[in-house]
Write a structure and sequence with these properties.
GO terms for molecular function: acetyl-CoA C-acetyltransferase activity. Helices cover 31% and strands 22% of the residues. By secondary structure, the protein is an alpha+beta fold. It has a domain of 259 residues: 3-Layer(aba) Sandwich (Peroxisomal Thiolase, Chain A, domain 1).
Length: 392
């Protein structure tokens, strides 16, 4: 059976939505730029690509993957849209890996794109209304809403519910978030992200064209005092502890990897960056959404026969700081191995791109450290979780 291997991994820098460097860059542009760069870095001819699989969310359903393939001039390459909310691009890579392992495809570009800055606004017709009434703006719900699991307010459904269930204090979440910012800033200053980022030429506010190549969400001035001073997002809820500081950012970005079969890579003289060893998804009741990240880690370790101590590095998405804290407590994971260069609280959380961003960062960091096993995991809307294991 062929083994799926990663032969390139790339991402854009992460921008703040609505006011950042990618505010006027459309999803279609981000998607086209990232798949072209993933293939260029791999050394594979575009004519050899069998499929493009991209996660998308709140884009409107136009199939970004196929649009990008055509825009790149790859008219014979199909495209598949994936939506598993936050875990979308992990699922894209998992789907691609499964196609390759089955022997049905040889070369696939997989990843995800998020541009909340340019996302369309939707409206929903109220059934039975006459004359027609609409809810506007409207977002498709990720699950049937309940009082303890609102579909729009993830601060409650994910952040707060996880903190309550596991017994995580405001102080512990603030400390985790602060360390995330410190690690992200240190990684930027050390140039750790340079190789993984595709600089984009974007228009600045003054009309000039600049290279956007540095993540803009991390805050150099973060401190525990500043974190503690932030108001909670729901003061009307007794004991509520989720703030903007211990939550992820609202962000735009794109990320992608090029995958091939191991025998194809060898036959074509391609450099293998990592092998995809396993993937998994799971789900819980939506009110326990953050715990899905905990559960999917247990599932993927069991599927691969790995122990926690076998894993060199972990990326556990900081949708809220409570999520990785819950995971490390449940599995006894060494915090020093988790989110080593920051995560959602600091780098930001470009939803559909975050999974492939995590994989990209894992690939480059593991290679710097001489190899090893990396695990990327996250919770996702609707009470879902996704994870992927790579080995460098």
């Amino acid at each position: 059976m062929p083994k799926p291997v990663i032969v390139s991994a790339v991402r854009t820098a992460i921008a703040r939505s609505f006011k950042g460097s990618l505010v006027n860059v459309a999803s279609e542009t981000l998607a086209t730029e990232i798949i072209v760069e993933a293939v260029r870095r791999s050394g594979i001819a575009p004519s050899e690509v069998d499929d493009v699989i991209l996660a998308e969310l709140n884009y409107g359903g136009g199939d970004l993957a196929r649009h990008a393939a055509v825009a790149a001039g790859w008219h014979s390459v199909p495209g598949q849209a994936v939506n598993r909310h936050c875990a979308g691009s992990l699922t894209s890579i998992a789907n691609a890996s499964a196609h390759i392992a089955s022997g049905m495809e040889r070369v696939i570009v997989a990843g995800g794109v998020q541009s909340l800055s340019t996302a369309p606004l939707m409206k929903w017709r109220v059934p039975g209304s006459d004359p027609m009434e609409f809810v506007e703006p409207w977002m498709p719900p990720s699950h049937p809403e309940t009082p303890d699991a609102p579909t729009i307010d993830m601060a409650i459904t994910v952040g707060w519910n996880t903190a309550k269930k596991v017994g995580i204090s405001r102080e512990a979440m603030d400390e985790w978030a602060l360390r995330s910012h410190q690690r992200a800033v240190a990684a930027i200053d050390a140039g750790k992200f340079v190789d993984e980022i595709l600089p984009l030429k974007v228009a600045a506010a003054d009309g000039s064209v600049v290279d956007f190549a540095v993540d803009e969400h991390p805050r150099r001035d973060s401190s525990l005092e500043r974190m503690a001073a932030l108001p909670v997002l729901h003061p009307e809820i007794e004991g509520f502890s989720i703030t903007a500081g211990n939550s992820s950012g609202i962000n735009d970005a794109a990320s992608a990897v090029a995958l091939t079969a191991d025998d194809y890579a060898i036959a074509n003289g391609l450099e293998t960056l990592a092998t995809v060893r396993s993937w998994a998804s799971t789900a819980v009741t939506p009110a326990d959404n953050g715990i899905a990240a905990v559960n999917v880690i247990g599932k993927i370790l069991d599927r691969t026969g790995l122990k926690v101590e076998d894993v060199a590095l972990w990326e556990i998405n900081e949708a809220f700081a409570s999520v990785p804290i819950a995971a490390v407590r449940a599995h006894g994971i060494d915090e020093e191995k988790v989110n080593f260069s920051g995560s959602g609280c600091s780098l930001g959380h470009p939803i559909s791109a975050s999974g492939a961003r995590q994989i990209t960062t894992l690939v480059y960091e593991l290679r710097r450290r001489g190899g090893g096993i990396g695990v990327s995991a996250m919770c996702a809307g609707g009470g879902q979780g996704g994870a992927l294991v790579i080995e460098v």
